Amino acid sequence: MAMDTLWRKFRGWLGTAGPNGHDSPPIPSNAATTGKVADSLRQLLDDPGIPTSIRSELATDFARLEQMLSRLERNELHIAVFGRVSAGKSALGNALLGREAFEVGVLHGTTTIAEQAPLDEAAHGGLVLIDTPGINELDGEARERLAFDVAEIADLVIFVADGDLTRDELDAVKTLARTQRPLLLALNKADRYGEEERRILLDHLRERTRGLILPEDTIAVAARPAARRQVETDASGHEQPYERNLPPDVAVLRERLLDIARREGKALSALNAGLYAGRLTDQVSVRIAATRRDMASRLIRNYCLAKGVAVALNPIPVADLLAAAGMDAAMVVQLSRLYGLPLTRAESGRLVAVISAQLAALMGAIWGMQLMASALKGVSAGLSVLVTATAQGALAWYATVLIGHAAERYLIAGKSWGEFGAKRAVADVVASLDRDSILREAREEILRRLKGGQA
Fold it and tell me: Could you tell me if 46 and 104 lie in one domain?
């Protein structure tokens, strides 16, 4: 599948839902849509047009995409749990799982790498929890970057707070909302508040996150409720105080997750995979374009050198210019193959003629100088021949640079000069290049070649 059409297909199949679905209709969660996305992920992973060097540069991203395809095929929904240090992220994950899957610390956060475990109660739905480092950990920049990387590949995010949001927490919520994943806010340690105080705090949090999190997705939980002090009377009638541990209170949040998984799980997983593949496609396209530009620059320079030296060495006045035109046509043929839009030799010649005509109109004086230098070369002698030949070769070099870049622009635009036509495109190329620098480099290189007796 062509790289520039892959992302458009994703958007067509999945819609253009904004964060939490506020700005667009629901995404259809049918098997056909999921199958189309899975097929497109396979095509991107197997695309023979992606160079090995680029696959190596983006090896981590391609590995992630393979994981996303695998979980899409397994109907898994991945949920990232975020929050600052000691807000209770790991404890909440354990409470949802019903077992101690994640390490829980009491001072600084103990989660230094992302961990994940299947949600036992929802194993049939394929829910997977991902615990992440605290966003305000020591050495927080690296760990926070890891947390946001996990959010990028998660289908849904739970942000855990234990009170009103700090500025850093609210900033993190805003950033997470921009990742276009459904976002839930869990008010943990809710057992510390009285009923009315808890209601007021939830309303306040819903107001602060308006437009970022749906009101019904701000939920009070108690992952590890504080032990309750009670008194027991023994057989002799003495009162014995003791502390009774309370079970986690996460039922509302668990039910909300299961409900989302039932209604939207497959669509969310497909959407996230499509979004990630779209970003990867963009990265691949940028790198392919950069690689092509580098190869095109080397190709143009090689033809500049060959043409400049050939023109300087050719003793026949004017005939050297005709030979140079043939070299320009050959260069354009090579460029067209590089950009995947091959031209025939005749098409290439016509393109060079169009570019040359525009250059002649823009730079008549330069072409006149080149013709004069060609004529002078046949009657000069000694050093003057060398100087004149070098000057003419430099002008030929410069002309090839202009023709090469103009042809490149035509090919990048898909064999089109664009809205303003060839005249404007060629003029833009001329304006963008440093003529004096190019001529200086050309004269130095050609002179070195001529003195060294190298063709």
Answer: yes
DSSP-assigned letters across all residues of 351-395: HHHHHHHHHHHH-HHHHHHHHHHHHHHTT--THHHHHHHHHHHHH
The partner residues of 249 in beta bridges, in order of sequence, read 222
Task: State residue 323's pLDDT score.
Answer: 62
Please report, for residues 159, 160, 201, 229, 334, the alpha-carbon distance to residue 192 in angstroms, rounded to integers and kept in the order given: 19, 15, 12, 14, 73
Contact 218, 164 (CB under 8 A): no
- Tokens coding 455: 């063709």
Domains of the chain: total: 2
Average pLDDT, the chain: 79
Residue 5 pLDDT > 60: no
The residue range of the domain holding 406 is: 314-452
**Residue 301 to residue 324: CA distance in whole angstroms:** 14
pTM over 0.70: no
Strand partners, 230: 242
376 and 247 belong to one structural domain: no
HEC profile for 232-262? EECCCCCEEEEEECCCCECHHHHHHHHHHHH
Dihedral pair phi/psi, residue 169, rounded to 5°: -65, -45
Q: Exposed, middle or buried by CB within 10 Å (0-12, 13-18, 19+), for 364?
A: exposed
Q: Tell me if residue 116 falls in helix, strand or coil.
A: strand
User: 291 lies in a domain?
Assistant: no
Sequence-distant (≥ 6) Cβ neighbours of residue 344 within 8 angstroms: 333
In a domain, 327, yes or no: yes
295 within domain boundaries: no
Q: Which of 98, 103, 94 lies closest to 134, judged by CA?
A: 103
pLDDT tens readout for residues 54-102: 999 999 889 988 988 888 888 888 888 988 878 888 889 888 888 887 8
